[in-house]
Amino acid sequence: MKLSARNTIPGTVTKVAKGATTAHVAIEIGNGVVVTASITNEAVDELGLKVGEKAYAVVKASDVMVAVD
Q1: Where is the Mop domain (predicted)?
Q2: Closest CA to 40 of 22, 61, 66
């Protein structure tokens, strides 16, 4: 696999929760740290994502926003 994104983090799928059109996929990347992605249900099916399988969290963003009250 080759990607232009520089932030490719290996992990294990811990949750796949499909909604009407979008799924939330949780990937544990180590030490109990979990990254959650929102992807289409179609992408879940095409990738064959299942709990316990290895996957990569790939992060490519131009902005990261943080807010508090």
Answers
A1: 2-68
A2: 22
